[in-house]
Amino acid sequence: MIGALQGLGLLAAAAGAGFFLAGTVGLIRFPDTTSRLHALTKADNLGLGLVVLGLLPFAGSLGAALKLLLVWGLVLLAGGTVAQMIAARVRGTEPGA
Amino acid sequence: MSAVLPYSIAAAALVALGLFGLVVQAAVLRKILAFNLLGGGVFLLFGVVARRGAGAGATADPVPQAIVITGLVVAFAATALAVVLALRMHQITGAATIAEAAEDGFPDK
Amino acid sequence: MGGLVDWLLAALVLGAAAWTLAAPTGFAAVVGFVGFGLLVTLAWVRLGAVDVALTEAAIGAGATGVILLMAVVRLRGGAEEVSAATPGRAVMVAAGLLAGGVGLALALAVLALPDPAPGLAAAAMARRGELGLGNPVAAVLMGYRGLDTLLESVVLVFAVLAVWSMAPDRRWGGIPGPRFPRQEAGPLALLARLLLPIGLVIGIHVAWVGAEAPGGKFQGGTILAAMWVLAWVAGLVQPPAIASQAVRLALVAGPLAFLLAGFAGMALGEGFLAWPPGLAKPMILLVEAAMTLSVAAALALLVAGPPERAA
Amino acid sequence: MSGTTPGGWLLVLALALPVGGMLLAFALGGRTAERIALGVLGLGTVLAGMIAAEVYAAGAPLAYRLGGWAPPLGLRLQADGLAAAMLLTAALVLLAVALFGRAAQATPPGVQEARAPFTFWTFLLALAASLAAAFLGGDLFNLFVALEMLTFAALSLACLDGRPSQFRSELRYLFFALIGSVLYLLGTALLYGAHGTLDIALLAERAGADLPTLLAAALMTAGLLAKMALFPLHLWLPPAHAGAPPAASALLSGLVVKAAFVLLLRLWIWVLPPVPAGAGAPLLAGLGAAAILVGSLIALRQERLKLLVAYSTVAQIGYLFLMLPLVLAGDPEAAARAWLGGILQAASHAFAKAAMFLSAGLVAGALGHDRVAELGGAGRAMPMAVIAFGLAGLSLMGIPPSGGFTAKWLLLTAALGTGQWWWAAVILGGGLLTGGYVYRVLAGSLTAPPAAAPRPEPPAQGPERVALALALVSVALGLVPLASFGLVQIGRPILGGAP
Amino acid sequence: MTGAQALLVAAIAAPVLLLAACLWDGARRRMPGLLWLAPLPGLAAALLAADTTPLVLDAARLRFTLALDAPSALLLGAAALLWSAAGAYASRYMGRGPGAERFALWWLITLSGSLGVFVAGDLASFYLAFAAVSLAAFGLIVQDGTPRARRAGEVTLLLAVMGEICLLLAFALLAEAVQGPSLAIADAVAALPGSPARGLAVGLLVAGFGLKAGLVPLHVWLPLAHPAAPMPASAVLSGAIVKAGIIGLLRFLPADGALSDWGGILAGIGLLTAFWGVGCGIVQANPKTVLAYSTVSQMGVTVAALGMGMAMAAPGTGMAVAFYATHHVLAKGALFLAVGLAAGSGGWRRWLVLLPALILALGFGGLPGTGGALAKAAVKPQLGEGLVGLLAGLSAAGSTLLMLHFMRRLIALEAGGTADRPARGLLLPWLGLAAAALLLPWALYGAAGLGDPWEALGKDPVAALWPVLLGAALAAGLARQDRWLGAVPEGDLLLLTGKARRLGAACGAVAVRAEALLRAWPIAGLALMALLLALFGVMLAAAA
User: Which residue ranges does the record assign to the NADH:quinone oxidoreductase/Mrp antiporter transmembrane domain (chain E) (predicted)?
Assistant: First the structure.
C-alpha cells in the first residue's frame, strides 16, 4: 500500500526526472555556453530538488532525510559556484556574450 | 548470478579498450587515461568475483573488496606519478608523447 | 527489470570509456573519464560493494579526475607531435585484434569460473567479531590482510617522495604546486568557506563509521584532502614547504602507527599485526585516525605535485 | 605449512626494519637519512644471513603467520631457500651500494638536505623494503603491492639525475611497468575467483589446468615479463638503467629485475600444474635465448659504456629463463641442477652487474664521458675499477672460477641431461658474445690515453674498493662448494614430471 | 697428504702465491726478477711425484683432485724447466718498470695454468687451468702494445674463447656420461667410449685441444701470436703453452683402441698439419714466424703419432708422444730465445748463438745424435711403418728444410757490432736450455721406459738420416728463391675470414635495426599482447 505522501513523492520524483531530461536536452541543443549553463543549472537544481523531495517520504529515519537534504544543499552550493565560475570565465573570453 | 554477467562483459571489454588505448594512443595524457580504464576493468572484475562470492550476510565477498580499495589507492598514486613525469617532460622538452626513446648514456660534460 | 538496469549501466560504462578514448580534446576525454568513474561507482553499488563505491567515487573519479584536469590545463599543444606519433592503420588493426583477443579470453575465463564461487565471505564475516568491527571490509583491511594495508600506506609515502623528487634541484625544500590568488570575494571563496567545515565533518564521519558501516580511512581521508585542495585553489591556504617537519610527520604517522601497533601485537598478542584481545577496537581506531591523517596528507600532496617555488 | 615456525620472527624483522627505517629516514631527512640507511642495511645484512643460516639449519622453510590469521583468510611471510638466497644477495648488494653511495650521494656541505641524496638514501631503504616484501611474501596480492613498491622505488632511483632526457624514458618505463602490474592484478582476480585464495601454498594444492587458471598464469607471466624487460619487452630497460647514476643503475640491473623473477618462479614452479607449465616453458626459454643473443649482439655494438652494460643486462636476464624448461623437464636430478644454476645466475649476475655499473660509473666520472671508443688511459688512472669490470665480465662470460661459470655449467649439464642441447648452444654462444663486449671495454681501457687528453682525475679509493669487492664476490661464488648451495633447494616443490 | 702430493700442490701454489704477493708494491716491483723461481716446485714435482696417489681435496664437495701420471710428469718437468729458463731470460729482457711488472702478472697467471693442466685431476680444475693458460696468454702477446700485437692477441683470444666453449660443452657431455657425481678425469675418460654422445664429445675435445695445439685449420692464431710476443713469451708460448692442447688430447682420449676410428682421423689431421706448417713456413721472412710454423708442423707430427697409436692401440703411445713433445718444449723454447740473442750479439760471440741453434734446428729433422733424433725414435712404433712411415719421413725432411730456412733468416738478421756482447742474463738461460734440449732426451729416454737410446739410434741409421739429407738438399735448391718470401701472410687461412667478418657486420646491422623497431612503443605493446595470447594458447592446448 502506498500512502498519499508516498504518492506525492513519486510524482515529485518523476517531475524531477523530467527536469533532468529537459536540462540535458538543453545542454546538448543550446547554442552557446551561457544558455547551456542556464539550462543545466536551472533544470538540475530544480530536478534534484524534486527528486530529493520525492524521496523524503521513503527515508527511514530523520537522519536519512537530513542527509538527503544535505546532498541537495551541497549540490546547490557546488553547482552554483561552478556555474558562476564558468560564466565569469566565459565573460572574460567571449566578449559580447 | 546472472546479475554479474553485464559487469563481467563490461570488465573484459574495459580491459580490451584500456590495452588498445595504451598501445595506440600517442599523447601521454591519453595513455594515462587508458591506464585508468584498464585498471577500472580489472577492479570491476574483482567486483564480479566479490559479488559471486556473496554470502553469509555479506552482499559481496569482503576480501576482493578490500583488495580493490588497496588497488585503487595504488593506481591513484601511480597516476599521480605519471602525471608529474608527463608535466615535467612537457615543461622541459615541450614533448607530449613518448614516441622516441632517448638513448641515454653518461652525460657529456 | 533489475537485469535491464545492469545491462544499461554496463553499456553506459563502456560508452563513457569509449568516449574517454575517442574524445576530440584532452579536456573532453578527462571529463569523459570522470563521468566513467561516476558510472562505475553506480556499478559498484549494484555489485553490493558500497565500500568500494565510496572509494571509487572519492579516489577513482574524484581525486584522479582532479589531477588529470590540472594536468590537461598544463599539457597544452603538441597536436602535430601526437599525430606524427600515432601509429598507422596496420598497427591499429593489430592492436585492436590482440586487445580484443585478450578481452575475449578474459570474458570466457570469467564465464568459466566455478559455481558456487569459492570465497572467503563466510570466514570474513564469522571472525570480524574478534576485531570488534562490524564492517567486514574493515576487518579485512585492518585485520586479516593488515600487511597489505600497511604496505599500501607505505606506497603512498613512496609516491609522495617520488613526486617530490621530480623537482629541479634548486626547488628542493620549497612549496609544491602553482600559487592560486587569494579570493576574498566571489563564488569560490564562498564555496570554500561554506563547504570547508561541512566537508571536514563529513570526512571525519566517513572515516569514523568505517569500522561498522561502509566508509573508512581512505574514503574519509580523500574527502579531507579534497577540502584542503579546495581551500588551496581558493587561495585560502598555501601548500606547506616539503622540508617542513610537520608535513613529513603527518605523512608517516599512519604507517608508523600501524607498524608500532604491529609490534605491540607481537608483544601482547598472537604476533606481528595481531590486535591484542580486548584492545583491538580502540587500537584499530587509533591507527585508523593516524592513517586518515596520512592518507589525507598524501593525497593532497600528490595533487599539489612537486615543489615549484621557494619556501 | 601455514603456522609460524621457530625463527619466523626474523622474517617480520627483515621486512619491518627497512619499512620503519624508510619512514624514519623520510621523516627526519637530510644526513640522518644516510645514517639510518647505512645502519638499517647493515643490520639487514645480518638478518638476511641469520635467515639463510636458520633455513639451512632447519632444512625447511621459515614461515610467519601474520596477525595470527591463517591463510586463506590471513597472510603469511615465508622464506624458503630461494627467498633466503635472494634476500642475502639483495642485502649484500644493497649494503655495497650504500657504502659506494657515501661518496657519490653525500649531502653537499652547507645544506640541510638536497634532492638527489635524500631521494637516494630514502629510496635505498624503500628498495630494501620492497625486495624483502617481494621475496618473503606468500600471497599473490601482497606480492602485487610489493611489486608496486618496487616500481616506485626503482623509478625514482632511475630519475635521480634529473636530466631532461630522462623524463621521457622514465615515463616509458612507468607505463610499461604499470601495464605489467595491471596484467598481474588481473591474473590474481581470476585466481581468486577460481580458487578463493591467493596464498601460494594453497593455490599450489587447488590450482588445476582450468581455463581461468591458465589465463591468469598467462596474464601474470606477461605482466612480470614486462617488468623484467625480457626481450622483446625490453624497450624501457636500456635508457632507464643507463641514464641513472651508477649506484642506482647497479640496484636496478642487479636486483630489481630479479624480484619479478622470483615471483615468476613462484607462479610457474609452485602454482601452475606441471603439464601446462611444461608446455609454456619452452616459449619463455626461447625468448630468453633470443634475449641472450640479441642483447649481447646489441651490447657488442654500443658506443656508450653504460648502454653497453644495460644491454648486457637484457642479455643476462635471458639466462634466467633457460632454467624453466630444464626444471620442468621431469628429470629430478637435472631439475635440481637447473634450479641451482638459475638461482646462482641470478645471484652472481646481481653482484657482477652491480660491480660493472659501479666501475663503469667511476670510469665515466673520471673521464668525463663514457664513449667506449675513447676509454684509453682508464686502466692506468683507475686500475681497480677496470679490474673490477674485468672480473665481473669474466663472471658474466662464464669463465671459471666464477659464479657465472658454475651457474652456466649447471644449466649446461642440465640441458644436456634432459636432451635439450639447443639451450646449451645458446648458453655457449651467449658466452662468446659476452666475451666480445667485455673485451671491447677492457681492451679500450688498457690502451694508452690519447696524447692530448687531460689526465683523468682518479676516483676515491673507497668506491673503487666497493666495486672490486662486488666483482670478487661474484667470482668467489664459483669457489663455494656446490653442496653448501643445498640451501636453495629447500622448499622447492619436487615435480612428478610431465608425461 | 704425502710429500709427493704436497709437491703437486706446491707446483700450482707457487705461481699463485707469487701472484698474490703482487698485491704489495714492493713485491710487485721485484717480481720480474723472481719469475724464474715460480716453476721450480713444478720441476720438483715432475722429478719426485710422478705416478703418486692422486690427491683428492674435499672429496665430498668440489672434487678438487690433483694427479700426475708419467706422461704428464715428463711434460711438466720440461715445461717447468722452460718456464724457469725463460723466466730468467725475461728478467733481463724485459728490464724494469710498470711494463715489466704487468708482464710478470700475466706471466704468473699463464704459468699457473700451464703447469696446472698437467696436474689437474678433475674436469673442473683442468678447465680452470686450461682457461688460465689460454686466456692469460693474451696478456703476454699484447705486451708490446703494437697494432700487430693487438690484432694477434685478439685473434688468439677469440679462438681461445671458442676453444673454451668447445671444451666446456665436451666436459659437460663427459660429466653427463659418468655415472654419479664424479668429475674425475679418469672416470670421465673411462665413461667416454660408452657415452651416447661419444662422437660429439670427442669432436669437441679434438676441436678445443687442437685449437690450442695448432692443428690445421685451427692453427691460424699461432703464427700470428708467437712472433708478436716478446722473446721469452714466444718461447713459452711455442714451447710450453701449446702443450696444454697435447696433454689434453693425451689425457682425454683413451689410447687403448676404444676410439680407434678417431685415431685415424687424428692421424690424418696431424699429417696434414705437419706438411701445412712446412709449406707455409718456408715462405716466411721473419725467423720467429718460421719457428711458429715449425711448431705447427711439429704438433702435427705429435698428434699424428697419437692418432696412429690410438688407431693401433699401440702400448706405450702416451709415453712416446709425451717424449716427442718434451723434446719440442725444450728445443723450440731454446730457439726462440736464440732469436732474441742473435740480433744483439756480434763477432765471434754470435756463434755462441748460431752454432747451438743449428744443431737444435737440425734436430727437428732427426739429425742423428740430437735429442730430436731420439724423439723421432720414440714415436717410431706409431709412425714407422708403411705409408705413414713414408709420410712421417717426408715431414721430417720438410722440417729439416724449414729449419734450415729458419737458420738463414736468423743469420740474415742484422748482426750487432763486433763489440756487442750478449748480456749474460740472456746468454746463460739460452745455453742452459739448449744444452738441456740436446742432452736431457738422452737421460730421459730410458727413464721413460722407451728403451736404450743408443740402441734406438743405432738400429737403422739410414732410415734416420735420409730425411735430413733430403731436407738439406731441398734447402740448398731453394736457397736462392727469396722471391717467394711473404707469399703467404702470417696466419694464412685468416685471409678467408674477411668475407665472414663482413657478413657478421651485416647481420649485426640488421639486428640493430630490428631491435630498434622492437623498442618502438606500439610494437612492444603488440608484442606483449601477442606473447600473452601465445602463452595462453600453448598452455591451453597442452592442458586440453
Answer: 120-343
Q: Rounded to the nearest 5°, which phi and psi values hold at D265?
A: -65, -40
Task: Count Cβ atoms below 10 Å from residue E108 Cβ, excluding itself.
Answer: 26
Number of separate domains in chain A? 1
Spell out the per-residue pLDDT of chain C, length 311, in tens. Answer: 568 889 999 999 999 999 999 988 888 899 999 999 999 999 999 998 888 998 998 888 888 998 998 888 888 777 777 777 788 888 899 999 999 999 999 999 999 988 888 888 888 888 888 888 888 888 888 889 999 999 999 999 999 999 999 888 888 888 888 888 887 777 788 888 888 888 899 889 888 888 888 888 888 999 999 899 888 888 888 889 888 889 999 999 999 999 999 998 888 877 888 888 888 888 888 999 999 999 999 999 999 989 988 87
Range 110-129 of D in CB contact (< 8 A) with C: 112-116, 118-119, 122-123, 126, 129
* E488 and E504 housed in the same domain: no
**Domain termination site, one of E458, E476, E496:** E496
One domain, residues E476 and E342: yes
Rounded (5°) CA angle D20-D25-D26: 100
Distances (CA, A) of B79 to B36, B84, C14, C160: 8, 9, 21, 12
E153: closest CA of chain D, how far (Å): 10
How many independent structural domains does chain E possess? 2
- The answer to whether the CB of B56 falls within 8 A of the CB of C117 is no
My answer on whether D171 and D126 are in the same domain is no
Ramachandran bin of C310, using left for φ above 0, alpha for ψ from -120 to 50, beta for the remaining angles = beta
Q: Map residue E279 onto helix, strand or coil.
A: helix
What is the pLDDT at residue B109?
40
Contacts of residue E30, Cβ cutoff 8 Å, sequence gap at least 6 = none
* Domain carrying residue A8: 4-91
Residue E224 and residue E162 in one domain: yes
User: Is D207 part of a structural domain of the chain?
Assistant: yes
**Distance from the E158 Cα atom to the nearest Cα atom in chain D, whole angstroms:** 8
- Return the closest-CA partner of residue E332 out of E375, E368, E303: E375
Show residues of chain D in contact with E508, CB under 8 Å. 297, 300-301
- Tell me the residue range of the domain where D162 lies: 139-272
Q: Cβ of C91 under 8 Å from any chain E Cβ?
A: yes
In a domain, A97, yes or no: no
Q: Which residues of E touch C101 (CB under 8 A)?
A: 529, 533
Is A66 in CB contact (< 8 Å) with chain C?
Answer: no
CATH topology of domain B5-93: Helix Hairpins (1.10.287)
**Can you give the pTM of this predicted structure?**
0.89
Residues near A75 by beta carbon (within 8 Å), at least 6 away in sequence: A44, A45, A48
Q: How many CB pairs under 8 A join D and E?
A: 135
Q: What is the CA radius of gyration of chain C?
A: 22
Residue A26 is assigned to a structural domain of this protein: yes
Residue B12 forms contact with D (CB below 8 Å): no
Which of C74, C136, C303 is nearest residue B58 as measured by Cβ atoms? Answer: C136
Residue of B nearest to D362 (CA): B106
Q: What is the ipTM of this complex?
A: 0.91
- Give the closest of C68, C92, C137 to B65, CB-based: C137
Chain E hits for C94, CB-CB cut-off 8 Å, are 526
Q: Is residue D286 a part of any domain in this protein?
A: no
Q: Which residues of B touch D175 (CB under 8 A)?
A: 22, 31, 35, 82, 98
3-class DSSP string for D359-371: HHHHHHHHHCCCE
CB contact under 8 A, C105 and E529: no
> Where exactly are the structural domains of chain B?
5-93
Written as nine digits, the cell of D465 is: 674498493
8 A C-beta contact, residue D18 and residue D125:
yes
Comparing CB atoms, the residue among E522, E532, E536 nearest residue C91 is E522
